[in-house]
Structure formats: C-alpha cells, structure tokens
Amino acid sequence: MFKKRNNPNVLTVPYHYSAQWDGRYDAADVAGFQMPEELLSAAPNIKAAYAAGRACAAKAIEALDQNLPTYVGRNPDGSPRWPDGVVGSITHTDNFVAAAVAPAADFLGIGIDSEKIMDEKILDETKRIALLGGEQEFLLRLPFSAAQILTLIFSAKESVYKCVHPLVKHPFDFSDIDIVSVDVQRNQFDFRLPALWYRLLPPHDRFSARFEMGSDYVHTAVELSSSSRHPSRG
Prior knowledge:
The chain has helices at 44-64, 123-130, 135-139, 146-168, 195-200; strands at 2-5, 16-21, 73-74, 80-81, 86-93, 96-103, 107-116, 178-183, 188-192, 206-213, 217-225. It is of the alpha+beta class. It has two domains: 2-105, CATH 3.90.470.20; 115-225, CATH 3.90.470. The strands form four sheets. The chain has a four-stranded antiparallel beta sheet with strand order 1-2-6-5. Helix 2 runs parallel beside helix 4 (146-168). The radius of gyration is 17 Å and the shape is globular. 37% of the residues are buried.
C-alpha cells in the first residue's frame, strides 16, 4: 500500500514519517490495524486514506518513543485522538501520506498538510473558499503560478487549522486565517489570527510556519512550541 519516502523539509521535530501511497487499502500492509466501526461502511478510498495515515502515525510515534502506544483513535469530529503525552497531525493526498508527532511537554500542537498542485478547473472555487482580499495584493508578487499560489494558501490554512483548533476549540473557517506574508527565500509564511484565539491559547507560544514547493505537491507545517516567546499579534 505504501513505502517510505523522504520527508518534506517543513518541520523541526524529527518524528515525521512520509510515504508514497497507491490509494488502495491492503490489510496486509497494516497488520493488526482495526478500522473504526463508524468507517466500516465507508467508501474504499476513505478507508484506505484512514489506514495509511494511521500506519504513518504509528511509525512516527515509534520514532518518538518505542514505549508509547501507537494506536491513534478518532475523535467525534473526525480528528485524530493521540496517545497521552503526544501531539500530532496527519495528512494524505494523491499518492502521498504523512504523519508527524512531538512530545506534548515540548509542543502544544502541530499541523501538517500536503496538497497536489490544484487543477485549473478548481482554482476559482478554491479562491472563493481560501483567499482573502488582502492576501491577493502580495500573492501577485510571488514567483509561482496561480495554481501553486492557491494550493500553498489552501495548504497553509489547513496546517494552521490542524494545529490551532484542538487548542482553541472554537468554530472557525479559512476566512479567520490571514496569510500576511510568504518568504520564498526561507520557505516561511506568516499569518494572523483573530484576537479571540490568542486569548484562548496558552500564554507562552510561538508559531513556526514553513512550506516546501515541489513540481507536483505543496507541503506546509505549523509548530506551536510550549516554551517560546509569545508571537507578535500585529
């Protein structure tokens, strides 16, 4: 079903497992894995994505600590339920799947996302969902195609959501995340959150946000350290 591949260069934590994935569900590749009851009747591609993501998560947890349980459950909202003492994130897209974890003592949250460069046919819909008016001003100056830029913005906001939502537990959508700059030399992006979110976040935190642009994929990641300075709130 999948085989190890090099990790995108988007995280500081080393507990990251990426794989090429053929999109199929093969129980032989995930020996001992049990599909949640609520997904037993799901479409084959959904079950395959779920199994592949959990297999990568197990590999990442083993790299973190071989004494930890590697089972990653499923919360009522569909997000991963990590073992005690672990924070993490899972992503999967066409022919690619990955998971990353970190010790909860050092990190409040991690968000990773990978996206296949979008087809021209869905650019207008993606722009409507993900792109804010102010973001268009600086995005026009980036040395990327329109498809690459919109895929980057979409992926960046997915990573922010995965990292922050478990902490704030507050309803929001992409319009609440404002990408304010993209540094193509350092492969970093900065973003602004609503003031309410900062009040809900623990008092000592710092966002680290990075991306990697490939010919076929965009990879993004956000790490929220538990021991760094508070970010500028612009």
